[in-house]
């Protein structure tokens, strides 16, 4: 008799359903559902969730490693000639095939769209499938990455130019239905507005701008630190400057904001701007609103995790953090510990900010910080486990909140959380790199 693919599912289950999760990730490896179409330019990030997720579940053998290595390496950005090295551009990894397009039918040129987050994900995948990173040409990557570091120590997400030529942008935006044209528009939108979050759905382009100009905050300091750490070469960033930037991001309450002076959080509310029929007028309004709203702009990401993990990778956090006196540390550890521990909510899950509902991904963002601080013994583990199981999906994977459909992002951080909780049958995590210990060491 053939093996049954669908299992009975008990929503009140107290079991981490490893086989179901492997099945879910294998499905995502074969083909992503259409709902992910708008995230085309973040394809490397989605692949990272799948590949590293399978590694956590000890099922990395389910994918063809050679195919994955060749695909990831094909996304590396290369300059046309040496003279372009001095133009300030970044030669890391493109987020997807579509962002490698050089020009569209109208002859409009697309700038090099390689991005720090895509580069981090590319290297994380390569390490996870056992590729020897010393075989890769990383000299230009690191040299050009240094161009992204700002005078205050922060890193820009990517080289960007703020709409230098409106005619070019409009030429790019004359598309309607062709899929690759849509991808081109998304890339153009990203490059010209400097925002990481843009998507296209039913004729509407959505932007979630974080800063005016290019994005630069703790998330990209973390990406740069992880890239240097994985390449075992720290020439790509000024460590002292980056450390100072991180220290300046610690808030009065002990947590970290994404930039100095902003509220400490692990996840801001997303404020979404939808532009229909994209026009220069609306573009101006977008810029104006961005300027007016300043720091209130939102992001998704664990600022506190990015800060602590970066300091750990850069060697600025001691091993026995809690047993040393507070004055020994570059950051205020007791205050950070206090803020972090207060984020475990009544239902057992972790919340990103006070008074927000608990959400699967924070079990990693906050739980990971507590592990790095060697304070995870203070987590109510059985309550956290109970909350996470209410987000376990009958299709495999995890949802953000209980009883919703699963998504790759929350599934991955759900697996990470169960690894942190030492679930049997899972590989343990190198928290600060966001991959398994096996992948990090390169066994
Ligand atoms: Zn979340």
Automatic annotation (TrEMBL):
Protein known as: Prenyltransferase alpha-alpha toroid domain-containing protein
Species of origin: Rehmannia glutinosa
In terms of SUPFAM superfamilies, this protein maps to: Terpenoid cyclases/Protein prenyltransferases
Sequence similarity: Belongs to the protein prenyltransferase subunit beta family.
Q: Does the keyword Lyase apply?
A: no
Task: Tell me the organism's taxonomic lineage.
Answer: Eukaryota, Viridiplantae, Streptophyta, Embryophyta, Tracheophyta
Q: Which UniProt keywords apply?
A: Metal-binding, Prenyltransferase, Repeat, Transferase, Zinc
Q: Which InterPro entries would you find in this protein's record?
A: PGGT1B-like, Prenyltrans, Terpenoid_cyclase/PrenylTrfase
Report the residue ranges that make up the Prenyltransferase alpha-alpha toroid domain in this protein: 16-171, 194-268, 301-429
Q: Please name the Pfam families in this protein's record.
A: Prenyltrans (PF00432)
**Cofactor section:** Zn(2+)
Q: Is Zinc tagged as a keyword?
A: yes
């Amino acid at each position: 008799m053939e093996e049954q693919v669908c299992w009975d599912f008990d929503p009140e289950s107290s079991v981490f359903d490893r086989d179901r999760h492997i099945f879910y990730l294998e499905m995502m490896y074969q083909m992503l559902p259409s709902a992910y179409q708008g995230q085309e330019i973040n394809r490397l990030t989605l692949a990272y969730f799948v590949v590293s997720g399978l590694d956590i579940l000890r099922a990395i053998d389910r994918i063809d490693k050679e195919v994955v290595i060749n695909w990831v390496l094909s996304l590396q950005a290369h300059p046309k000639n040496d003279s372009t090295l001095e133009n300030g551009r970044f030669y890391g990894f493109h987020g997807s095939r579509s962002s490698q397009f050089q020009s569209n039918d109208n002859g409009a040129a697309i700038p090099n769209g390689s991005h720090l987050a895509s580069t981090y994900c590319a290297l994380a995948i390569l390490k996870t499938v056992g590729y020897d990173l010393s075989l890769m040409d990383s000299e230009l990557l690191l040299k050009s990455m240094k161009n992204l570091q700002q005078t205050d120590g922060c890193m820009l997400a990517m080289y960007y130019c703020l709409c230098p030529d409106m005619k070019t942008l409009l030429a790019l935006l004359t598309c309607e239905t062709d899929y690759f044209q849509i991808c081109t528009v998304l890339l153009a939108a990203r490059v010209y507005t400097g925002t990481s979050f843009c998507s296209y759905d039913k004729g509407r382009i959505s932007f979630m701008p974080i800063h005016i100009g290019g994005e630069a905050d703790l998330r990209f300091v973390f990406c740069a630190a992880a890239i240097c750490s994985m390449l075992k070469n720290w020439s790509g960033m000024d460590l002292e400057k980056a450390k100072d930037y991180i220290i300046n991001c610690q808030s009065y309450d002990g947590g970290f904001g994404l930039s100095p002076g902003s509220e400490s959080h692990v996840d801001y509310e997303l404020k979404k701007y939808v532009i229909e029929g994209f026009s220069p007028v609306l573009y101006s309004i977008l810029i104006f609103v961005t300027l007016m709203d300043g720091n209130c702009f939102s992001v998704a990401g664990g600022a506190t995790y990015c800060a602590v993990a970066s300091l750990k990778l850069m060697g600025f956090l001691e091993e026995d953090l809690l047993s040393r006196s507070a004055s020994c540390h570059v950051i205020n550890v007791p205050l950070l510990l206090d803020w972090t521990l207060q984020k475990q909510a009544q239902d057992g899950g972790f919340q990103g900010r006070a008074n927000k509902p608990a959400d699967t991904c924070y079990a990693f963002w906050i739980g990971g910080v507590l592990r790095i601080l060697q304070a995870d013994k203070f987590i109510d583990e059985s309550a956290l486990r109970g909350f996470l199981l209410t987000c376990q999906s009958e299709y495999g994977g995890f949802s953000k909140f209980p009883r919703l459909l699963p998504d790759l992002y929350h599934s991955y951080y759900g697996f990470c959380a169960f690894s942190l909780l030492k679930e049997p049958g899972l590989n343990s995590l190198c928290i600060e790199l966001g991959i398994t210990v096996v992948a990090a060491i390169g066994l």
